[in-house]
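Collaborator request, handled under Task 6.
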Amino acid sequence: MDINVYAHHALGLPGPHELYFQNLSKRKQVMEKKENNRKLRVCVATCNRADYSKLAPIMFGIKMEPEFFELDVVVLGSHLIDDYGNTYRMIEQDDFDINTRLHTIVRGEDEAAMVESVGLALVKLPDVLNRLKPDIMIVHGDRFDALALATSAALMNIRILHIEGGEVSGTIDDSIRHAITKLAHYHVCCTRSAEQHLISMCEDHDRILLAGCPSYDKLLSAKNKDYMSIIRMWLGDDVKPKDYIVALQHPVTTDIKHSIKMFELTLDALTSFNKRTLVLFPNIDAGSKEMVRVMRKKGIEHHPNFRAVKHVPFDQFIQLVAHAGCMIGNSSCGVREVGAFGTPVINLGTRQIGRETGENVLHVRDADTQDKILQALHLQFGKQYPCSKIYGDGNAVPRILKFLKSIDLQEPLQKKFCFPPVKDNISQDIDHILETLSALAVDLGGTNLRVAIVSMKGEIVKKYTQFNPKTYEERINLILQMCVEAAAEAVKLNCRILGVGISTGGRVNPREGIVLHSTKLIQEWNSVDLRSPLSDTLHLPVWVDNDGNCAALAERKFGQGKGLENFVTLITGTGIGGGIIHQHELIHGSSFCAAELGHIVVSLDGPDCSCGSHGCIEAYASGMALQREAKKLHDEDQLLVEGMSVPKDEAVGALHLIQAAKLGNAKAQSILRTAGTALGLGVVNILHTMNPSLVILSGVLASHYIHTVKDIIRQQALSSVQDVDVVVSDLVEPALLGAASMVLDYTTRRIY
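Structure tokens returned to the collaborator:
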């Protein structure tokens, strides 16, 4: 499998293509040298249960490649304290040899104890590092123990690889994290925002890897495993999935008194909410001792609705949060890892105020009353959100291992900082493969079902087409199958899929991802939830909208509507549809029925329409309407002219009518003029109602109607709107591009 990485263009250096080939040649040389040289000696230092969940996947990856790496494991911090679960045992259970155990925690759980613990670690670490002599030390995150590790390694001229730098949370952790960034030589970050923060902090662009969070490599394959036995073991035999809460709250060291008060309010709210709750003990930060006292004062350890535990193994913890009705607290796990399952999260206070979050997270910034927290529980408990992959796609460890192999130990140890300002959206390749941010686009038409991989620039990288099945079950299974195959192919094509966008006929509720009512062309397609099965299968966020709206979105992002504040798109195909962009936003209407432009009535005594009315634009100008008129002429032997023929096994359709008109058939020409006139009158009504700055005709029939439509506007429209331009779309695949644009334009960070 090809492993893809992101990287960056440095300002003031040669152009991107020159840099790409320079780095490609350089890194190939490094890899070739390493095949003949000694193994890279890697020291992984873990301080607590949280950082081990991120480091363990990397450690397993290193262990699986003994021909390239030697692994030394150093354990320190709260791993070795009984009150915090003696979590070093899970490292032993994972069959890792612990080279060194360092007791570095000074008890007291206050600010002074944290400082003294850093000092004790600084005293003990030099002997360990002198003995191990690692080539590189891997340090994770933002804990005070990690700061001691990074300081020791930097002063002893040991290269440092920092995991999860560049992120923003909202407490003293930010200062520690950024301090470690300045000490580290190499950086592995999880999100594009974190990557940009590192660049803004003047870190060397060539030494930043956007890999995703290592824990996601395990998370994204975890939910389908057996979980009922785990739920029963930790919460009791009578507890059902989605009917319990996981609570994990830590002290905020910059405001300990408030965080203790907030913890009291949280426990009171959970008691009132009356659901079985698994409460994990807080970490070892200053204030944790007082939080434990609050738990014991309120009798949480003996309350029938609570299970209070010091530690849950990560594999089991994954299953517990994946199937919880809600998670509450201020742990980074809630805003990061839990999003992979779409589990609702209530984030309390300011400890994670700066984190990027998925839509599953509800923030209660000022958690100063029990009622606020209780109301949040009522809002969130039992919901299911789309799975979020903000922090990873499940391929972080292979990228990190490749990054480690590319490190040249002959390079100067002294760090270089890139002080010139960095422009937005400039990136330089740090490895020999560059990933393309892409979307999976699905177009559900009356005849065909199409899936495409679409890049950020609107390029269709690959497209798959199948006949659209007639039944719901066959159709949904085919959609899932095609999307799974396309997602797998995307990896080989160096495309990173950000989400799935679906364009379908009929009335759609885009907020819920549900097709409310479909057109007659797509059978068994009413009240269909498209979001849930796709999101659960692909672990990706999913958006759904009407095909007319998607055409408008395509024009806004990639077509002639780009940069315009107000415009209207009309689709001329089998039916007539459309989309309205007003003040740069798509209009859905109060019941998701806006822009049904094909059902504007242009004649009180016109032909019957499929909607049940008559005289609609669609009854005159749609492909179905032209096919109806073509069949009438053909049955009366008035369709074919010299140079035309229709094979016996071929149905007469709109294209035959157009061909006849081009060859001089007066009756076919009259039908097309009438159809164009009906469409033109509809456009006049749109101009008088919406007053857009542009009207875009899209679809296979657009070019045949454009001149007639412009004539009708000159004849019938008010002079104040006659200057509005009407153009034919130059997009070949508006439905697919519009579906992709829903994914590519979506802002994943939500604040409630």
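The cover message to the collaborator said: "Residues 666-690 form the longest helix (25 residues). The radius of gyration is 31 Å. Please let us know whether this matches your experimental observations."
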